[in-house]
TrEMBL record:
The lineage of its organism: Eukaryota, Metazoa, Chordata, Craniata, Vertebrata. GO terms for cellular component: cytoplasm. Residues 640-672 are annotated as: Disordered. This is phosphatidylinositol-3,4-bisphosphate 4-phosphatase. SMART domains: PH. It comes from Dromaius novaehollandiae (Emu). Residues 653-672 have a biased composition (Basic and acidic residues).
Amino acid sequence: MPGTTAHLGALLEGGSLASKEYHRKEPRERWCRLKGNLLFLMKNKTSEASEVVILERCWIVEFRSKTDVSIVLKFQSGEPDLYLEAASKPDCESWAVALGEANSEGLRNKIQQLRRLIMEIKEERSADEARQFVPSSQVDSLGEPQFTSIQRIANEPKLEFSLACKDLVAATRDRKLNTFIQVSVVHPAEHILTRYSSTEIVEGTRDPLFLTGVTFPPEYPIYEETKIKLTVYDVKDKSQDTVCTSVLPDHKEPRTDVGRSFLGCTTFRVGDLVKSKEQQLTLTLRTSDGGKTVGTIEVNLVKMGEIEDGEADHVTTDAQDQKFLCFLPLKSRPRGFLLSATCAHNTENLDRMTDRRAKEECALVRECTAPEGVSGKDNLPLLNAVLKNPICKLYRFPTSDNKWMQIREQMAESTLSFHVPKELISLHIKEDMRRNQELKELGELAPHWDNMRKNVIAHCDQMLSLYQDTLAELGKHTGSSFKSSCSKGEKTLEFIPINLHLQRMHVHTARLKDAVYDVITVGAPAAHCQGFKNGGLRKLLSKFEAERRNTGYQCIYYSPENTAKAKEVLSNINHLQPLISSHADLLLNSASQRSPDSLKNSLKMLSEKTELFVHAFKDQLVRSALLALYTARPGCVLKKPVTPRNSVEEGGDSQHQDHPSQIKRQDSIPHHSEYDEEEWDRVWANVGKSLNCVIAMVDRLLEKDNSSSIKEGEDDPSPADRKISHTGGDWYEQLYPLVITLKDCMGEVVTRAKQSMTFVLLQELACGLPQCLMLTLRRDIVFSQALAGLVCGFIIKLHAGLHDQGFLQQLHTVGLLVQYEGLLSTYSEEAGMLEDMAVGISDLQKVMFKIIEAKSEDFLPIISGRREHYVIEVQLPAKMFELLPQEIKEGKLLRMYPVLFNVGINEQQTLAERFGDTTLQENINQENLELLKEYYKLFTEKMPPDCLPHFQEQNDLKGLLENLHQNIQAKKRKNVEIMWLAATICRKLNGIRFTCCKSAKDRTSMSVTLEQCSILRDEHQLHKDFFIRALDCMRREGCRIENVLKNVKCRKYAFNMIQLMAFPKYYRPPEGTYGKADT
C-alpha cells in the first residue's frame, strides 16, 4: 500500500477518512471502521471497503505536541508508513490507544489483565473479616486436605516477615515514588485471595525500607502451601488514599484518580520462605500483564527475639514522614502470655517534660519469661478462655544510640464482655425473685400497707420480666465477643461494655530486659439507652434522695445507709442459716458415731457460724424496724401518729440497747407503748443460750468419755463389757433435743428479722416508685459494664505478677489500685455519661476477688453475691495456683481501690470551659485524689519498703502526688498532665490501668498510642527524631486503626479538622486517617 495520509472521524463507528500520496498536500477523506485487528477504509458510510490494513507487527507513533493531531503506523515488514490525522487532540489520543491494542499482542495483554481482575473479584472477605478466621484446628476438622503446618512456639505468632523494595520504576523519570505494599493471602484449599494487611507509606524513594512488617497470629490457618501476594502501589495523595480508597470494596482495584496507582505485584509460597537457607527471598515485581519488570522486593523471615547486630545508621531522616516499623516477634524461649497494666501520657508540654520524665524508671519493666514451673503451654487454656481474636502489629524503631528496638503491639477482645454481664443479670434475677417472695411472706398488713405492698410487687414483677428478657436475648448472641461503638443504642446489649479490649505493648531491646505494658480500653460505662436528658447517675441519685427525704407519701423514710444495712442483714440470714443447720446436722452425725475429734470440729464450726449469725442482729435498725412492722399490722391503734422526724443518731451503743427509753429511734419510726421491745431481746438471746447448752453438753460428753477411757485402761475390761458401757450413754440422744431447740430459736429469729428488714425495703421501694426501680436498673447497667472491664483487668494483672512475690504480697495485704483515665467532656450528653461513669466506678469498691484452683477445663470466673457485695472467684490451673501465697490459697478476699481522673480534650470541652461548667470534672478529680492518697497511706503503712525492689524511693511518689494535687487545684484548661501523673502513680503502685472515652475508639486511640510512644522515648531511648513518626505509624497502621475498622467498618477516626483544632497537639491523628464516620 502506498504511503497515504488520512483524516480520522469517530472511533469504531466510522468517521471521515481521506488518503493521498505522501507528497500530496490535501488528504483524501475516507470512512474507517476498526474491527479486531483489521482497519477498513471506505469512501463513504455505505460503500464497501476500498482498503484493508492488517494491524500486526506494527507500532504506533503518536506525536506529543499539543497541537499535532497526527499518528503514524510503522510496519516491521518494511511497507510504507500510513499517516493518519485526527480532527482534534482527544480524538487522536483515543485512536492511538485503540489502534495500539488492536493487534494480537494487545489482546493477550487484555486477557492477562482480565484474569488478574477476575482474581481480584474473588476477594470475598475484607481485611476485618479476615481477622475472624477459622482456627487451624477447626479447618482440619472440616475434612479439608491436610497441609504442612509451620512449627512455632506455643502462643507465639506463626509467621512474621519484613519487606523492602529496590529499583522501583516510576511512570515518569522525575516522579518521586511514595509507595506501600498490600499483603494478600491465598489459602491452598479455598483459592480465594484475601486482603490481610499493608505497610506504611514510605515517601520520596525508589528503594523503600518498609519498617512495618507482617505477622500471623498463633491460630491463623497458614501453611507452607499458602501463597502470599505482595502488591506495590504508588500513592499520589496520602490523604486521598486513606480516606477514600480504604473504604472501597475489597474486590475492586482502587482507581488511579483517587490517590494511588498500581506499580507491580509478585507471589511466593510460605514454604519457600521458611525453608530458604538465608530465610530471605528476592522476588521480581512485574506489571499486571506479567511482562514488564518494575523492581524487586525482598522478603526477610523474622526470627523470635533476634536483634540485628548492625547499627541503624542507614536509617536517615531525609525521607519526609517516613515510618520506621517492622513486625518482630519475641524470644524463642518458653514464655507465658504475661501482661501488666502500665501507661504513660504526654501533654501539651511534652517537650518540656522530656528530661524530667526520662530520669524516671518504669515501675513495671520486668523480664518477660514465664514463672518458674509454669510454661506458655500451661497458660494457654486460661488465656484462650479470657482473650479472643488477637491482632498483632510489630515495629522496629531506632534508639538514641543508633540501635534497633523491637516492639510488638497486640490487641484482643475479651470473652468477659458477655460472660460477666450474663452472670450478673442472673444474680439480679435471683435477688429480685427472693425479694418479691419475701414481700409476699411479710404477713398480714393493714389496708394502707397492704395496698402499698401490692403496688410495689406489681412494679417489681415488671422489672424482673425486663431482666429475664434481657438475659434471654443475650443467651441468643453469637459471633463477636465485643460490642461495637455502633451498638451503643441497642437495648438488648445495654449491659455489655462498649468496645472492651486489651491493649498491650511488648518491648524487646538488646541491652535491657523485655518489658510489657498493658492498658484496658473500654467505652465509658454509661446507660446510653436510658438517655442523658436529665443527667447521669450522680445527679439523678442526689435528686432522688432529696425528693424521697421530703416525700409526702404515707411511708417511713430510711436513709440509704439503713436500706443497705437491711439488705446486708437479709443476705447474712440467707447465707448463714443453711450453714448453721448443716453444721448442726454434722454435729449430730458425729455424736451418733461417737467420734470425739469429729464432734469437736463440728462444734467449733457450729459455734463460729452461730456467733456470726447472732452478731448480724446486733443493730438498732432491727429493733426499730420490728416496732414499725408491729404498727403496720391490722388492728393496731397507734397512740401517737406517724410523723416524719429527722434523726441524726440511728442507733446506740451496747449499754443503751438494754434501755429502750434512752434510744433515739429511726427516722419516722413511731413509739408504741403497747409493744414490748424486750421481747426481741429475749428471742435473740435464746439463740446464744441454746448454743451454750449445746457446748456444755458436748463438753460433758467428752469429759465422761475421757474419764471412762482412763478407767477402762486401768481395769482392761473385755470387749463385750466395753460395748455395753458405750451403748449405755448414747451421745446422739442427749444432743438431739438441744440441737432442735437451737434450730427452733434460730428459726424464730430468722422469721422476725427477715420480716422487719423486708419491711424496711418495702418503704424504700414505696417511697420512690417507679423512679427507684428505674434508677436501680440504670445503676445495674452501668455497674455491669464497669465490672466486666475490671474482671478482665484483674485476671490479666494477676498473670503478669504470678512470679512477683512483692506484687502477690501487696495483693493480699493491701489490695490493688485501679486507675481509670476518662476523656469525656463536661458538655451536653457527655456530662451525663461522666456522671454515670463516676458512680459505676465508685460502685466497684463493693467488689472482692478470690482466687481458687480450677477443678475443670472451664476457667471463666464465677460471680456470687448481691447488689451491695460481690465476690469474683478467679480460677487458676493447678500449676499456677501453687505459686500463690498461702493467704491467697486459703481464700482470703482481695480488695480493689478504683479511682477516676477525667480531662475532656475535644471541642465540646472547649465549649464547656468557655461557656459552660467544669465543676463536675473538678469535683470528680478532687474526690478521687483523696481516695488515691488514702490508698498510698495504706500502702506505705502495710508494705515493707524493700518488698518491691523495682519501685523508686517513696519520696518520688510523694512528689508525684503533690504535683497531681497542684495540677488539679490549678484548674487549667485541658490539663492532660493530670492524666499523665495519675497514670505514672498507678504504674509505680503496681495498679491496673484503664483508658475510656465515649466509645474507646477515637480519643482512646490517640491516648494509648501517645502513651506507648512516650514510654518508648522515656524508658527505652527511642530516638528523639522519630517520636512523631512512631506516633503517626501506630495511629495509621497499628492496632488502634484496626479497632476503628472493627467498630465502624472503615479505617477513619471520627474527627474533622475543626474538632482537631481544639485537641491538644499530641492527641491529633496523622493526615489522611480521619474523616466523617459513624460512631
